[in-house]
Amino acid sequence: MGGAVGRLSRRLNRRRGGSGGRSAPGRQVRDPEEEAILLSIDEYRSRLLASIETLPARRISLDDTWGCVLAEDVVAPADLPGFTSSAMDGYAVRSADVASPPAELRVTGEVRMGQSFDGAVGAGEAIVVPTGGVVPHGADAVVPVELCDRHGDRVVVLRAVPSGKHIRPAGEDAGAGDVLVRAGRRLDAPDVGALAAAGLGAASVIPRARVGVVSTGDELVRPGNPLRDAQIYDANATILAACVRDAGGIPVDGGIGRDDAGALVDALDRIADDVDAFVCSGGVSAGERDPVKRAFEATGTMTFANVAMQPGRPQAFGSHRGKPVIALPGNPVSVFVSFVVFAYPALMKLMGRDESYPDVVATLEAAIEAPKTRTRYARVRLRRDGDRLVAAPEGGHQSNLLATFARADGLAIIPAGATMAAGESCRVLPVRDLP
C-alpha cells in the first residue's frame, strides 16, 4: 500500500462500518459451478469483527504515541504558556511612555531566554526582550526593534504602541485544567506536540498492534536466497508486513510455516508472546495438506468459510493462545485484497480505531464483468480527466499475477453478477496515492 492508506484516510471522508464492497444480497449464496455455499462479504466481515476485542490501554512514552488512539482525556497541568512573554524581539516598555513618539527611554536591562528576570520597567525606562522571553514587571507592551533607534544606553521609540501590543499572556493557549486532547482521538503531530508542550512525557493510549506474519507453503523461499526447481519466492510475507505497517501496526516476522499442521503451530508459538494478533497466508482451502485447516479445523477455535468474492474466496479466522488469527488465501493478489477487505478493519478495531479502508469513485473507461455469485475486485489504472477519476482495466484477474497487480492503481468493486459498462461510476479501493 506504500503509505497510500494513511494519506488517503486524511483526505477522504471516513465511513462507519465495513469496508471493501458488498456481495450479493443476503447472508449466503450458492456457487452453482462449484456446489459451494458462499458467505456474503458483509456477513463474514461482521463475524470476524465480532471476534475482535480492542487492545487494553497502556501508558507509554509520548515519543511512541503517534498514530495511537488516546484512551483518556488529557488536561493541561498548568497554564500554557506558564508566563507572560514577548511576541517580538524588541523593548519592553510602558505604553504611556511612548504615546507621543519619538520617545527617548533609558535601557536598564536585558531579558535572557530561559531565564527569569528580577527587575521591572519604571517610568521612562525600557528593557531589551527577545521573542518568547519573559515580559518584565511594569511593562504592558513591547516595541519591535524595527521601530526603535538605539544609541548606547538610550533607545528612541519611533512609533506609539498600545497596551498589550506584542505580548503573549500566560494561559493564552490553554488554562490549567483545560482539555488538551480528548479520548478517542488518533494522535497526530499537533496532538503529541500539545502534550509535549504541557510537559507530559507519557500518555494512556490503545497501543499499535504487534501483528505476527506467517506465510505457509513448502514451495516458499525467502527473497535473496537461491531457488530450486518448483520453488517460488515468498512475496506474501512482504506484502502483509507492508500492509500491517500501512494500517498503523507493527509486523513481527513469524517465518515460513511449512505444509504441516505441527510446523504451523510451532511457527505461531515462537512469536505468540511477542504479538497481539496473527495474520497468515495460505493453507485455508480444502487441500489435504493445507496446514491451517489441518491444525485448527478440529479444535473449534477457527471459523472457515468460502466468501462471495473474487479473488479471495477461502477465508478463516479464530484464535490461538487467546490472540486473534486472521488466515488469508495463498495467492499474492488474494492476500492483498483479503487484507484490505477483512484484516484492515479487524486491525482498526484492535487498535481502537473505527474507520474503514478509504475508497474513491471513478468512471470506468471500459466494461468490467463480475462472476454471477461473487463480487469482483478488478485491477485498474487511475488517471485524472478534469475533475473526475477514470479507471481503466489493468491485466488479468488471476490472483497469482502479482506483476500486473503492481502496475495497477486500485481495485474496482464490481457487484456479483453485474457487468458495469464504460462510462459508469464505480467504487475503487486505491492501492497507491491518487494521480
Describe the model.
- It is a single chain.
- The longest helix is centred in the last third of the chain and has 19 residues, at 332-350.
- The strands form nine sheets. Strands 10-7-9-8-12-11 form a six-stranded mixed β-sheet, with no helix packed on it. A six-stranded mixed β-sheet has the order 19-16-20-24-23-21, with helices on both faces. It has a five-stranded mixed beta barrel with strand order 25-28-27-29-31.
- It starts with a helix and ends in a 5-residue tail after the last strand.
- By secondary structure, the chain is an alpha+beta fold.
- The chain is 18% helix and 32% strand.
- Mean pLDDT is 89; it is low at 12-19.
- It has helices at 4-11, 41-50, 189-197, 236-246, 261-271, 291-296, 332-350, 402-406; strands at residues 28-31, 36-39, 58-61, 69-70, 74-75, 85-86, 90-93, 103-110, 125-129, 141-144, 148-151, 154-157, 167-168, 179-181, 202-206, 210-216, 220-221, 232-233, 250-257, 277-281, 302-306, 309-310, 314-320, 323-328, 360-364, 368-369, 375-385, 388-393, 410-414, 419-420, 425-430.
Q: What secondary-structure arrangement, pairings included, does this model have?
A:
Blueprint: H1 4-11, E1 28-31, E2 36-39, H2 41-50, E3 58-61, E4 69-70, E5 74-75, E6 85-86, E7 90-93, E8 103-110, E9 125-129, E10 141-144, E11 148-151, E12 154-157, E13 167-168, E14 179-181, H3 189-197, E15 202-206, E16 210-216, E17 220-221, E18 232-233, H4 236-246, E19 250-257, H5 261-271, E20 277-281, H6 291-296, E21 302-306, E22 309-310, E23 314-320, E24 323-328, H7 332-350, E25 360-364, E26 368-369, E27 375-385, E28 388-393, H8 402-406, E29 410-414, E30 419-420, E31 425-430
Parallel strand pairs: 8-9, 16-19, 16-20, 17-18, 20-24, 22-27, 25-28
Antiparallel strand pairs: 1-2, 3-15, 4-15, 5-14, 6-13, 7-9, 7-10, 8-12, 11-12, 21-23, 23-24, 25-31, 26-30, 27-28, 27-29, 29-31
Helix pairs in contact: 2-7, 4-7
